[in-house]
Design brief:
The complex is a heterodimer. Chain A is mainly alpha-helical. Chain A contains eight helices and no strands. Chain B is an all-alpha fold. Chain B has two domains: about 5-70, no CATH class; about 80-235, no CATH class. Chain B has 13 helices and no strands. Classes of the chains: A mainly alpha, B mainly alpha.
């Protein structure tokens, strides 16, 4: 389990280094995800210890957002000035964005599902889909 | 306040205990109301801790002294998204191009619709610029805001609210539109509500989590490069 945690910390660490030296407006964690993803693709399996730690961390991902969320307290004055306009804008745009993206994705997957059921192939993609559902 | 109490509040234990304790309580409240999205655990925790800090007069810095330990785990936990992403790679690869298309359309709509509404309601120009990167994960959003001339702190606040709104409205939207595909749900959550949405998607399934993580990353990168470019064309 310790090894898994080290892999994640190392990913975040190296990601931060890449982020600051590349000068790209991409945070270190995004590079970190890519780094770990590439490593997993090379060794072609998820080490048991990494699986344990990431499952545990991701289960409580929402918790880790609470301190940043409480940070909103520092911006209350700023938000107060235009709060009704901002709230309406955020609500409207969130609803539209979710509707559009979910509908595009849903259409695409239904087309792909029809195609694959026509070919009667239970390919690896469909399998991993079903496995994922049960997790 | 006596010196002993101040010392206790200033120790990291206070922030950690308050955060984890209130989050646990929020999960229980959410469970009691049968998991209603209106009482999202993160929003509920914020709604309990923020008034508590304001009422007691404890500065955010003092709270964050301990809460930063929880906050720190956000880094490795985000990197951990590589695992569900790898495990569902076959499925992601199958829909990769449409995924990118959905992401480009989604992130464009997210930014423009929010700006348009604020502009339509007669909002301040600075507010419009600050609200543009609202669907992007906080570190990227603050960078973009600075680059295009918005108010960084306002952007940070707006990003947090966007994440919370996405978690609240998405289950209702999925129900009305009869969206059953977990990949679609996850990706929509990741594109519209960054990390908050990803955390929510992981509660649906690992597939949803993988797609949300991908949505979060691609939206962030696309907006970071696209938004300053689009603005430089118009201004």
């Amino acid at each position: 389990m310790l090894l898994g945690f080290i892999i994640l910390l190392l990913g975040a660490f190296l990601g931060n280094i890449i982020s600051s030296y590349s000068g790209l407006p991409v945070p270190g964690t995004v590079f970190g995800i890519l780094l770990v993803l590439v490593c997993l693709a090379i060794i072609k399996k998820v080490p048991h210890s990494l699986k344990l730690v990431s499952d545990g961390l991701l289960k409580y991902l929402a918790l880790f957002y609470v301190p940043a969320g409480v940070g909103l307290v520092a911006y209350l004055d700023l938000l107060a000035a235009d709060w009704s306009k901002i709230l309406v804008a955020l609500l409207v745009s969130s609803v539209i964005t979710i509707i559009v993206v979910a509908m595009i994705m849903d259409k695409i997957t239904s087309i792909i599902n029809i195609k694959s059921s026509k070919n009667e192939c239970s390919d690896s993609a469909a399998d991993s889909y079903n496995n994922g559902k049960s997790v | 306040m006596s010196l002993e109490i101040i010392a206790i509040i200033e120790s990291p234990l206070f922030g950690v205990l308050l955060t984890v304790g209130v989050f646990f309580l929020s999960l229980e409240i959410n469970k009691f109301f049968k998991g209603t999205p209106l009482l999202h655990p993160v929003m509920l925790s914020m709604a309990i801790i923020i008034p508590l800090l304001l009422w007691t007069g404890i500065p955010y810095e003092t709270y964050f002294n301990g809460a930063s330990i929880i906050h720190f785990l956000l880094g490795p936990a985000t990197v951990a998204l590589a695992v569900p992403l790898y495990e569902n790679f076959a499925r992601v690869r199958q829909v990769f191009l449409p995924l990118m298309l959905a992401c480009i359309i989604g992130s464009t709509i997210a930014a423009t619709s929010a700006c348009a509404v604020v502009w339509g309601l007669g909002g301040d120009f600075k507010t419009i610029l600050s609200i543009a990167p609202k669907s992007v994960t906080t570190p990227i959003a603050m960078g973009i805001s600075e680059q295009i001339g918005g108010i960084q702190s306002l952007t940070a606040g707006v990003v947090l609210i966007t994440g919370t709104i996405g978690c609240i409205v998405s289950p209702v939207i999925f129900k009305i539109l009869k969206i059953r595909d977990d990949g679609a749900k996850g990706f929509a959550l990741g594109v519209s509500s960054h990390g908050f949405g990803t955390a929510q998607a992981l509660q649906i399934s690992a597939v949803a989590g993988a797609f949300a993580g991908l949505g979060l990353g691609v939206t962030g990168v696309l907006t970071a490069f696209g938004l300053p470019l689009v603005l430089s064309v118009f201004w």
